[in-house]
Amino acid sequence: MPAYSDSVSIGAAGPVPVECVLQRRPLTRAEADEVVAQIRRSPKITGYSRSEWRGRRDTFALVRRDGGELVGALLVHHLVGGWAEIAVVFVLEEHRGRGYGRQLLAGALDMMADTRKRLLLFYSEGSPMGALARDHGFGIHADEDAFVRGMPGRRIFLKYVYKFQWLCSFYRIREMRRKRRELDCTFDFKVAFLHTEGIKK
Ligand SMILES: CC(C)(COP(=O)(O)OP(=O)(O)OC[C@H]1O[C@@H](n2cnc3c(N)ncnc32)[C@H](O)[C@@H]1OP(=O)(O)O)[C@@H](O)C(=O)NCCC(=O)NCCS
């Protein structure tokens, strides 16, 4: 397996049956194809394009140490003003429920701990993501209005700057329309927030 300067070993302790390594790198073509195909079937995530997984965004790959098979991937969308969004935490369908999601989020947060970023993470009601985010120190807000209430800086950022940056993608607009039509998605997300200074090392 190639060595990456920015990588961390994820131990086999706890519920993870196989030792994995978390690499901060673009996904390979085959990995990106699989992740994009599975996300296209998911009603919980709007979607990021192949090229975003292949290097246009900050991406993390959780791979098995024996053989390098991808088990999960995480995508960070860096935004203006010191904000960033953990836009996707994704464990491939065949590997879910074995602790990889927890390991993926913990490892990526660890690598971002010194970046002084304000991190957003949106997730759907009923997803295991809520408990995962809370366990990693995120504050949870019922929706966008609750997140910005009484905080004009947050309101301007979220309602205008974030929306504009996020929607600057044909792929995302097309996927949202398709998923609303075909998968009955409502995209009612809860908002999780964490300042990286609060990450416990
Ligand atoms: C959310 C996701 C990343 C979790 O990854 P995972 O590897 O399946 O989760 P883990 O095995 O690490 O489990 C994390 C916690 O969630 C719980 N959990 C996992 N799957 C669950 C399920 N289907 N229902 C309820 N709880 C569940 C586990 O019990 C665990 O809690 P514990 O550590 O206190 O026991 C994965 O399910 C996924 O990729 N889902 C689709 C994409 C998505 O919705 N991403 C989130 C928004 S970006």
TrEMBL record:
Record's signal peptide: none
Protein keywords: Acyltransferase, Transferase
EC code: 2.3.-.-
The UniProt record lists the keyword Ribonucleoprotein: no
Domain N-acetyltransferase: 22-167
Pfam family, one: Acetyltransf_1
Annotated protein name in UniProt: GNAT family N-acetyltransferase
Taxonomy, superkingdom: Bacteria
Sample GO molecular function, one term: acyltransferase activity
